[in-house]
Design goal:
six-stranded mixed sheet; 5 helices; about 20% helix; globular
Length: about 220
């Protein structure tokens, strides 16, 4: 997954216009977990949106966590409505490749999910992740509850202390409310891609450092 190498965010008034409706169809069944990509799930299920580079490998990590009931991949954080993959790869939509994670808090904690998130990419790289360069690969957390925001910021700060001690720079991860950013499902072939293509491309440019427990 190699896109246009944009080193700065497109301005809203310069972004591609997008469209009111999607121009492709996406099924509703999770190929691995068997449930719905869109919900609704149980009343206790929480949803968070995580961006950590190429969404193929990032989604695979999340669907493997016990207590995650569904995942999907899509585009979020930009300005163009219902974009295509090709449009996102130009860097002219402002979106980043994002994984929707629906999870059951009685089985898996948000801390455990964020631990996988922080430890499996390098959140200091800005508009890139390893060999993948462009604004569509930037790190982000789009939260859906105040409690998610609090824990996202707390784990960011804890991880910053750990990686700073090892010479890494500031974390560039965007933490923002999901309510202000529409999530657009990516094309059908991107959904659970690494289940469909087991030897497909994976990129996890991680720091090799662990997120400490919060006290």
């Amino acid at each position: 997954m190699f896109g246009f190498r944009s080193s700065s965010m497109v301005a809203p008034d310069a972004a591609l216009p997008g469209r009111a409706q999607p121009i492709f169809e996406v099924g509703d069944t999770h190929t691995v977990l068997g449930g719905s990509l869109r919900g609704p799930w149980s009343a206790s299920t929480e949803v968070i949106y995580l961006a950590s580079g190429c969404f193929w490998g990032a989604e695979e990590l999340m669907w493997a966590i016990r207590g995650v009931v569904s995942t999907s991949v899509g585009y979020m954080g930009g300005f163009s409505g219902n974009p295509t993959y090709e449009e996102v790869c130009t860097g002219m939509t402002g979106h980043t490749e994002t994984v929707m994670v629906a999870f059951e808090p009685s089985i898996v904690t948000l801390f455990d999910i964020l631990k996988v998130f922080w430890e499996n990419h390098d959140p200091t790289q800005g508009f890139r992740q390893g060999n993948d360069i462009g604004t569509q690969y930037r790190s982000a957390i789009f939260f859906t509850t105040p409690e998610q925001q609090t824990l996202a910021e707390a784990t960011r700060d804890a991880y910053q202390r750990v990686i700073s001690d090892r010479g890494y720079g500031p974390i560039t991860t965007e933490i923002a409310p999901a309510a202000g950013h529409t999530y657009y499902l990516a094309e059908e072939y991107h959904q659970q891609y690494l289940y469909k293509v087991p030897h497909g491309y994976r990129c996890h440019a991680n720091t090799g450092l662990a997120l400490p427990a919060l006290v």
